[in-house]
TrEMBL record:
PANTHER family: CARBOXYVINYL-CARBOXYPHOSPHONATE PHOSPHORYLMUTASE, CHLOROPLASTIC, PHOSPHOENOLPYRUVATE CARBOXYLASE. InterPro entries: ICL/PEPM, Pyrv/PenolPyrv_kinase-like_dom, Pyrv_kinase-like_dom_sf. The gene is bcpA. GO terms for molecular function: oxo-acid-lyase activity. This is Carboxyvinyl-carboxyphosphonate phosphorylmutase. Signal peptide: none annotated.
């Protein structure tokens, strides 16, 4: 799977929403819903594999392993994956990108935070030297052109908009396909970035970790240069809420009958039914899972 489709979305004049997936079934659901790209979050992998927060417990190998399991279910839809800081210096960042390409990942986002990953909205976030961050981007662009690179900066929450713009300009000059100015939410500030980097696609992150965000229409976002909107944790949080309600219902009543669930036939259709074992699956109408 190449990065061409992902780069095409970044070059478009419209906004594409990119939801998080975390296993083959959620990947299949996202494809059936019509999404043109999906996202794999380091926070999701850390939570599901280790039961740990996203504080550096997960490495590139775990992200690539998880991608290997879900890429076949995407049927060619590009996967954008979290690459943290590249997990080290420029050489390590290149190793990460090569591992991601082998796993079928089409694009990655690379950040300039120092130390364990935190949201750019939280106190204590630090950023590394801008030159080192740009060197990682440059190494990826030069040595792994088969993967799209989105350069994320957390400088806005540390040093303000001007420094975020400076870093975005530096990363774009180093070869990034797009920039992700973490924490920049308002149309006015996004417009300033767009004006300072004409022709450079902007990606915004709509993770629930950032709290309440301004409500902007796709038209508003497109006007200020935004091309991708990431929703990395929405589906996982919704699934966990549903599981919580189900477990509570069983504990309280001995039954999950009152909880809204996907029909069994739709589930077997998603995972690939064996008609001999589950003849009802062949009669599942389209989009029954939703």
């Amino acid at each position: 799977m190449s990065a061409d489709e992902l780069r095409a979305l970044l070059r478009a004049e419209t906004v594409t929403h990119v939801p998080g997936v975390y296993d083959p079934i959620t990947a299949a659901l996202a494809v059936r819903a019509g999404h043109r790209a999906v996202h794999l979050s380091g926070a999701a992998v850390s939570a599901l594999m280790l039961g740990q927060p996203d504080l550096g417990f997960v490495h590139a190998t775990q992200i690539a392993d998880r991608a290997n399991t879900l890429v076949p279910a995407l049927r060619g839809v590009p996967l954008l994956a979290d690459a943290d800081t590249g997990y080290g210096n420029p050489a390590y960042a290149v190793w990460t990108a090569l591992a991601y390409v082998r796993a079928g990942i089409s694009g990655l986002h690379l950040q300039d935070q120092a130390g364990p990953e935190r949201s750019g909205h939280l106190a204590g976030t630090e950023v590394i030297d801008a030159g080192l961050a740009a060197a990682k981007v440059k190494a990826l662009a030069a040595e792994v052109p088969e993967i799209a690179v989105i350069a994320r900066t957390d400088a806005y929450g540390v040093n303000g908009l001007d420094e975020a713009i400076r870093r975005c300009r530096l990363f774009a000059g180093a070869g990034a396909d797009a920039v992700l100015p973490e924490g920049v939410d308002t149309p006015g500030e996004l417009a300033k970035i767009h004006a300072a980097l004409p022709g450079v696609p902007i990606v915004v992150n709509r993770s629930e970790a950032g709290g309440n965000r301004p409500s902007l229409t796709d038209a508003d976002l497109a006007e200020v240069g935004v091309r991708l909107v990431l929703h990395p944790m929405a589906a996982l949080l919704a699934a966990l809420r549903a599981a919580s309600l189900t477990y509570r219902a069983i504990a309280d009543t001995g039954s999950a009958a009152g909880v809204d669930r996907m029909p069994w036939a739709a589930f077997t259709d998603l995972v690939g039914p064996d008609d001999a074992l589950d003849p009802d699956a062949r009669y599942v109408p389209g989009r029954l899972e939703t």
